[in-house]
Amino acid sequence: xxxxxxxxxxxxxxxxxxxxxxxxxxxAGLDVEVVGPSxxxxxxxxxxxxxxxxxxxxxxxxxxxxxxxxxxxAPDYMRRYPEMVxxxxxxxxxxxxxxxxxxxxxxLIEADVxxxxxxxxxxxIKTDLINAGASYEDSEVVVDGNLVTSRFPADLPVFxxxxxxxxxxxxxxx
Amino acid sequence: xxxxxxxxxxxxxxxxxxxxxxxxxxxAGLDVEVVGPSxxxxxxxxxxxxxxxxxxxxxxxxxxxxxxxxxxxAPDYMRRYPEMVxxxxxxxxxxxxxxxxxxxxxxLIEADVxxxxxxxxxxxIKTDLINAGASYEDSEVVVDGNLVTSRFPADLPVFxxxxxxxxxxxxxxx
Lengths: 174, 174
Fold this sequence. Notes:
The structure is a homodimer. Helix content of chain A is 34%, strand content 23%. By secondary structure, chain A is an alpha/beta fold. Chain A has one domain (4-173): Rossmann fold (3-Layer(aba) Sandwich), CATH 3.40.50. Chain A has a 6-stranded mixed β-sheet, sandwiched between helices. Chains A and B meet through helix 1 and helix 6 of A and helix 1 and helix 6 of B.
């Protein structure tokens, strides 16, 4: 059974936007695999540590049901690595569930997977989201097909309840 | 319907042990009320901010189904306030669900609610737990009646899935 959710990180992730999904995915009975451009410990904006245990080339995409992209400054760093961006593009093409919160949408922009999609993001990058072809909505969570987006940490409860439901369905269907 | 869970904080809480329950309780459809010895922002060990919106004297205990006590250095500070300790003692006497993780057990010790109970805690305070009359177990979660205890952040998924189940039952029964 497909059982794996990838959590993409880089330095200065918004601590809760990475750590809440990290524990919540485990609570839901799914496996979380933390993926960075290199293996090792990355620290959130407040300094919370999280270890990337694999790189994109080491991910077995056939075992994956979804990808979660936290915000903070991390997406600005992640988007510089073509292999991190390709992971998001490939997962989207395969119809996997993609969740992005806050500045996490910068990875959706870089992967060019927003054209014609309804989505939300942190207000600072609203213009970038629209310029990338998305229809922006100011809602706590926006679901368009397999794409789930939210705005900031206060949206985490609805972001994760929505994502967990979809990821569990993908797990069963797989 | 009773719908409220109190999350006790003080300075230098273990960031995830407070923040994961903070969002998880909301995701479960319960209200979270953050309680400190004074109202205002407290910061976790890594600096994550969380606002205490009420003090113990302002809590309406009749609306409460449970209390969660995070770890870090916060319990060492909390236990100096008799009104914070009394809240735990009162809630225990009323049969409410009490969850404590890591050093959070220091508040259970101070409230003297551990005699004859099975419980766990962070290893550094194991001796204090036993001296307070508890039967210590090295398990990811220990449930004895309405008391739920865990050891450290990695236990958060099972700690919160256990607590959420019990809190929802209390909510329905109330």
